[in-house]
Design goal:
single chain; Rossmann fold; Helicase, Ruva Protein, domain 3; 7-stranded mixed beta sheet
Length: 286
């Protein structure tokens, strides 16, 4: 395999043609064909021989192969059963890889981690189809599984939103959702030219390092508050909150803002994570 790594475009085409495989647009399939990017993802994710890795969307095994060379154990979750004979061929040399076929949004991830990945901690690495990026990341974070980090390939625009700063156009509810659970960092810019077939937009790989401790606030109240604050971006925070239908009138909202040390004239995009955490504590009716 040393001279026939799976990121060679010629090798990719030979394998796919041999199995009569055709790409599914509906599944958002785009396979990596650049060795520098593949190695950069694994290096940026900080994968070592001590790590258990959960990969989502192995495709034909290009990234899986690099993970297998660097990790202790890799479990890859693949939705498309048509890739089974291809993955059996491409991953045959690696005895530290296991492929599970199914939908990552429905599979019992905790059971998989307990039974196949030593119970954790686990590092997640994924080249996600763009159309399911947010639901998958949402599930991985909300279930508080034993993850150390989640390194995912996403649309460049989505990555920019995840790491955005307050008072910028990219800053919003996704930023705050991600930063509630993790410390996000873009580790690699990925041009569209390194995929087969080539997508229309560039991508980025973002590493989400799971926080040791989550913010000290009611989670449901926090996210309800964030959704309300960004429901009307151009309105002041108090007007956005009062028109969202929260169980608090303007006077109660105004008093809560004062207690949290927040000016009532600010907009939702002006506040940092810590501000929302404080305000959520002052609005128990949410």
């Amino acid at each position: 395999m040393e001279n026939k790594r799976l990121y060679s475009p010629k090798q990719v085409r030979e394998v796919l043609d041999r199995h009569g495989f055709t790409f599914s647009k509906g599944l958002g399939q785009n396979f990596l064909i650049d060795g520098n990017i593949v190695r950069g993802i694994v290096r940026g994710a900080g994968i070592t021989k001590d790590d258990y890795v959960l990969e989502i969307g192995p495709g034909m095994g290009t990234l899986t192969e690099e993970l297998a060379l660097n990790a202790k154990k890799v479990v890859a979750i693949e939705l498309d059963n048509r890739l089974k004979p291809i993955l059996e061929e491409t991953l045959y040399p690696y005895d530290n890889v296991e492929v599970v076929y199914g939908d990552v949004l429905k599979l019992p991830l905790r059971e998989i981690i307990d039974e196949k990945l030593g119970g954790g901690p686990v590092k997640v690495v994924a080249n996600l189809p763009y159309y399911v990026t947010t639901p998958i990341i949402g599930r991985l974070l909300e279930e508080e599984l034993p993850f150390k980090s989640i390194s995912v390939m996403v649309q460049k625009e989505v990555a920019d939103r995840m790491v955005a700063r307050p008072d910028t156009k990219d800053y919003g509810s996704l930023t705050l959702f991600v930063s509630f659970y993790t410390k996000p960092e873009i580790i690699l810019k990925v041009p569209k030219t390194v995929f087969m077939p080539q997508p229309k937009i560039d991508s980025s790989v973002i590493r989400l390092t799971i926080k040791d401790e989550l913010p000290d606030t009611n989670r449901e109240s926090f996210f309800k508050l964030v959704r309300a604050a960004f429901s009307k971006r151009r309105k002041t925070l108090i007007n956005a909150l009062s028109t969202y239908g929260l169980e608090a009138d303007k006077d109660e909202l105004r008093a809560a803002l004062v207690r949290a040390g927040i000016d009532e004239t600010v907009r939702g995009e002006d506040l940092a994570l810590e501000d929302y955490v404080r305000l959520a504590r002052e609005l128990p009716k949410l």
